[in-house]
Every structure is written in structure tokens, then in C-alpha cells.
Design a protein that fits this description.
The protein has 82 residues and is α+β, with helices and mostly antiparallel strands. It has one domain: Winged helix-like DNA-binding domain superfamily/Winged helix DNA-binding domain (Arc Repressor Mutant, subunit A), CATH 1.10.10. The protein has a five-stranded antiparallel beta sheet.
């Protein structure tokens, strides 16, 4: 699966700001940036983000960028950018 430009942007934001991706009831944000649910699901399929251990507190799912996501941003994981 290839990495889209939007997926790369989201991963960069997460890496550079150390923000979590917060998903609740079909709406997702990284900080103040709204993220489409399909982008969240694609990042999960790529195994680029991981659920935080306190994810379900307050009815929200929280995700952090993981090593795979960081490698994708750096171009080391073999993903392509479209």
C-alpha cells in the first residue's frame, strides 16, 4: 500500500508537534487539524499509528505515531508518496 500526500502530512504533524490523533464518533483531529476518517483507517492499515494505552478514556480513541510511522516520514520504510 502506498502512502498518500495527506497521510504523510498527518504523520509529519504528529511527529513535529508530538500531538496525538484523537478520533471520536467519526471525527478526527491532530491538534486543531481535522483529519478524514479514511485517513485514520489508512494509517492504521499501514501500522503507522498505534492506539494509546489510555485510548478509550472519555469516549475518544487516541493514537500516537509509532516507529513505522516515523520511518515512513523519513522515507526509510519503502512507502511511496503519491
Amino acid at each position: 500500500m502506498s502512502l498518500s500526500l495527506r497521510q504523510l502530512q498527518v504523520l509529519r504533524i504528529m511527529r513535529d508537534t508530538d500531538e496525538e490523533l484523537v478520533y471520536s464518533k467519526g471525527t478526527a483531529y491532530v491538534g486543531d487539524v481535522k483529519i478524514a476518517p479514511r485517513t485514520v483507517f489508512a494509517l492504521l492499515r499501514l501500522a503507522a499509528i498505534s492506539m494509546d494505552q489510555y485510548s478509550q478514556v472519555g469516549g475518544c480513541e487516541r493514537y500516537t505515531i509509532n516507529e513505522t510511522g516515523a520511518e515512513l516520514v523519513e522515507g526509510k520504510a519503502g512507502g511511496t508518496h503519491e
